[in-house]
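Hello again, I could really use a second opinion on something today. I've been puzzling over a protein and I'd love to understand its fold better. I'm sending you its amino acid sequence along with the backbone structure tokens. It would help a lot if you went through both lines with me. I've dropped the whole record in just underneath, so have a look.
***
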Amino acid sequence: MIEPKDVTIIIPTILNGDLPLEKLDRQKYAFDHCLESLDETVPDIPKIIASNGGKPISYINYTQVHNWRQGQCMAVNAAVATTNTPWIFVTNDDMVYAPGWWDRLIRDITLDTKCISPKLVEPRPGALTFIVQPFGGAGGDFNKEGWLEFAKNYNGAEVRTGFNLPFLIRRELWDTIGGYDINYDPWGSNGDSDLEYKIKLAGVQPYQSQNSLVYHFSQTSGTFSPENQGYWQKNYAYFIEKWGFERVGSPEIWEATFNIPDEGRKFRPDWEGKYAG
């Protein structure tokens, strides 16, 4: 059984004092719900706010690591580097947790589990592995009561293969693969896919708990805004340059069912296959 002292929760956020007021209010609304839900459901697990970009907004009573440069990959890596727990849990700052989610998640962990994600619930259609439920989002219309009732009564299936944020990962695996590749910053798009590929390349199959639910407001950071599509394209091209091939699409990327090709692959770290078998 994983004890609270064995885990650190990392919450990266670009919530900062330099944002336009409308965007600041929107992101603060989401972040406050996220932080409140974690405090209510897992009060004994240490949390680090990994803020990045612009003038920091200080959160008293919380450990905070701030990078003036924007970048979720860099921010998470920096926050993890300050910890020594054997497990790391990484979440977006617009995810809301319901009572019991943690116990349901660790109930699905075996001795061989090295990376596992809760199942996501979002207000609009997304990946096939997500549940769609219209509980609102960062626009100030979050239906918290509806979300909590839904999560309370939900009974999922058994654990299955899969990967998404948030995720719980063994610190040893994180250190082995070097965490996130900061070349995907400042917007981080495709950085999660790169991390998943590295996990698979190390010989680890990531899993998803079908019993532990997390509600995701979705698309509050601006990563997928039209003005940032250039970063997405740049990062997609960087993935191909690094690995030597295009990453798989949906649903394989979410189901974590893909095999990494050997022919033509450029990225060949010395830890490849460390956990295979």
